[in-house]
Amino acid sequence: MTQLARAIAAALVAAAAVAACGVAPAGGPTVRLDNGTTVPIAIHVNDRWVGTYPAGAVVDVPVPVQGGDYLIEARTPSSASLVSLLGTSSRVEGASDGRLPMSSWADVGCGRVVLSIGPADLTILPDPPEPSGPCP
Fold it and tell me: 14 versus 98: which is more confidently predicted?
């Protein structure tokens, strides 16, 4: 096998691995997770796990492209849903391209978790409380 053929085969294997993980294609919608809690938070879209992010993470999470409604949830390790965003595919795409930003947040005993799509103005939120207990 030539070096070029090996490189092409490696690229195909890598592409298949990425597709198998459910990563959204570049340019698709993303949700910003601001995990101000003391626990890892899992992102679920329509009850399907997308990824888990550590305490303190601020990350843009690719949302799998689909038709119909989206229910995007931030869940604790015990599967409790702390905060969610609900919208149609056109609403989520409109938020993602900046036309209609959307956000939701919750303060719980273990801190604050925020989900947002698009350039949401989160400066209007009050200061988060200090974590004072366990997460649900």
Answer: 98
Q: How far apart are CA 102 and CA 116, in angstroms?
A: 6
What are the sequence ranges of the domains in the chain? 24-124
For residue 36, pLDDT over 90 is answered with yes
Burial class of residue 1 (count of CB atoms within 10 Å of its CB; 0-12, 13-18, 19+)? exposed
Annotate 29-54 with DSSP letters as a single string. Answer: -EEEEEEEESS-EEEEETTEEEEEE-
Cβ(42)–Cβ(51) below 8 Å? yes
Q: Identify the pLDDT of residue 114.
A: 95
Retrieve residue 5's tokens: 């053929």
